[in-house]
Design a protein that fits this description.
Elements lengths: L1 E6 L5 E5 L4 H10 L5 E6 L5 H12 L3 E5 L4 E6 L6 E2 L1 H4 L9 H8 L1 E5 L12 H9 L3 E5 L2 E5 L8 E3 L5 H11 L5 E5 L5 H12 L3 E3 L5 E5 L8 E3 L4 H13 L3 E5 L7 H9 L3 E5 L2 E5 L9 E2 L11 H9 L4 E5 L8 H7 L4 E5 L2 E5 L8 E3 L3 H13 L3 E5 L1 H5 L5 H7 L3 E6 L4
Helix pairs in contact: 1-2, 1-7, 4-6, 5-6, 6-7, 8-10, 8-12, 10-12, 11-12
The structure holds uridine-diphosphate-2(N-acetylglucosaminyl) butyric acid (EPU).
């Protein structure tokens, strides 16, 4: 069993580069299904989830060539892709659900195993299903599979989402681009990753208005064509580096990032006492004191991202003062707090809220990452804890952070990868 061993106390200094976003590239890969022929995606992160999605596309009949040295994917989509996404892949990655919309739109059928993925809450699919039904698809659930079919071409529909769900917006959007007529998605998600997929779909010939707003208007077209598209930078990886600089009292320049995608998180770091400088291709974060506690409320974009919540709890756990952290998206994301407590953090949770009282010191201990961002939060806490922190559940971290260990080492961190027995 692989673990990360982090020995705290080093100030991180230097420069890092951010790859393309996990939460965009997986959807871009699914979107290629909408057009036969060879599409190319660049700025592809070298993470496990990309391999899982590549395997899923291969099973649907696509040729997938991943050149990790060039961060490029070439996906050759057949005239008639298969339509079944099996449990053995879907259970490893919830994002597999994003093939649902493109398959129903393109081949009139999709059998997708109900997803597993991160252990961070119930994560329903009702809005995905409702959106597809409004467009004329029949959707049922049998033996652990979501079965969607459409005898004829999907028809346009107006959908008002109860909540600006990222996944539901993507499913409905990817179905609507090939539907007959003009569809509207109101209260749509407007994360930078949604803008990215809209841009790619536009490059394929889709007609989409209102990109980046909460109302998307999509005029369906008869067919789309392949495209070459560069993945938007990963704002969550960039934000994780920003917290790494702040928590260690370091000085880190992050390249290949878009500071405007992280406005609130960077402002919070400034409130915590960091100096934050925007650069043309990223930003620089410096910290020369113990951070001050900062309250956080997670919300859909442009609010504070839930995917940076554990990292900020880690920061608050060593800050001066107390902070109230409110989690509005994933109820189980506070499970990570129990692990942080093993390092001596003082965090109390009550429903959606966590009260974090800063301690002057954490102390290293074995801990378990329960999802990607919990893993990032634990590594960050380990960087400041006295002694050695052994992080189990490394597979979760590998799903979202490419080359984390060498990048941290290059900034001066004392971290290594090993097996549970040799560390
Ligand atoms: N929801 C429903 N019904 C639906 C859809 C969503 O109840 O039909 C609920 C979910 O249960 C959840 C909330 O709405 O409580 C938010 O879900 P959303 O659909 O917005 O999120 P997602 O598409 O499942 C993506 C990212 C997450 C990220 C969220 C929010 C991917 C693969 N995942 O999830 O990323 O936290 O958006 O920004 O894009 C991560 O990277 O660590 C991660 C979990």
């Amino acid at each position: 069993m692989e673990v990360l061993r982090v020995t705290g106390g080093q100030r991180l200094t230097g420069e890092v580069s951010v790859p393309g976003a996990k939460n965009s590239v997986l959807k871009l890969m699914a979107a290629t299904l909408l057009a036969p022929g060879v599409s190319t995606i660049t700025n592809v992160p070298g993470i496990l989830d990309v391999e899982i999605m590549a395997e899923l596309l291969r099973r649907l009949g696509c040729g997938v060539e991943h050149r990790s040295d060039e961060a490029t994917l070439r996906i050759d989509v057949p005239e008639r892709p298969d339509h079944r996404a099996d449990y053995d892949l879907v259970r490893r990655m919830r994002a597999s659900i994003c093939v649902l919309g493109p398959l129903v739109a393109r081949v009139g059928a999709a059998d997708v195993a109900l997803p597993g993925g991160d252990n961070i809450g119930s994560r329903g699919l009702d809005m995905h299903v409702d959106g597809l039904r409004r467009m004329g698809a029949e959707v049922t659930s049998e033996h652990g599979y979501l079965l969607a079919s459409a005898r004829n071409r999907l028809t346009s529909a107006e959908t008002w989402l109860d909540f600006p769900s990222v996944g539901a917006t993507e499913t409905i959007l990817m179905a609507a681009v090939l539907a007959d007529g003009t569809s509207v998605i109101d209260n749509a998600a407007r994360e930078p990753e949604i803008v990215d997929i809209c841009r790619m779909l536009q490059g394929m010939g889709a007609q989409i208005d209102g990109v980046g707003t909460s109302t998307l208007r999509i005029e369906g077209v008869d067919e789309l064509h392949p495209v070459e598209h560069a993945t938007v930078p990963d704002r969550i990886v960039a934000g994780t580096w920003a917290v790494a600089a702040a928590i260690t009292g370091g000085d880190v320049t992050v390249h290949g990032a878009q500071a405007d995608h992280l406005s609130i998180a960077l402002e919070k770091l400034a409130t915590a006492g960091a100096s934050v400088e925007s650069l043309p291709d990223g930003f620089r974060v410096r910290m020369d004191r113990r951070p001050a506690a900062v309250d956080i409320v997670t919300l859909p974009y442009p609010g504070f991202p839930t995917d940076l919540q554990p990292q900020f709890i880690a920061l608050n756990s060593v800050a001066e003062g107390a902070a109230l952290v409110t989690e509005n998206l994933f109820e189980a994301r506070f499970r990570f707090v129990q692990e942080l407590a093993r390092l001596g953090a003082d965090v109390r949770t009550d429903g959606h809220h966590a009260l974090v009282r800063g301690r002057s010191m954490l102390s290293g201990a074995p801990v378990e990452a329960t999802d990607i961002r919990a893993g990032a939060g634990l590594v960050l806490a380990g960087l400041i804890a006295e002694g050695t922190t052994t992080v189990y559940g490394v597979g979760h971290i590998d799903r979202g952070y490419a080359g984390l260990v060498p990048a941290l080492q290059s900034l001066g961190a004392d971290i290594e990868r090993g097996t549970a027995t040799d560390v």
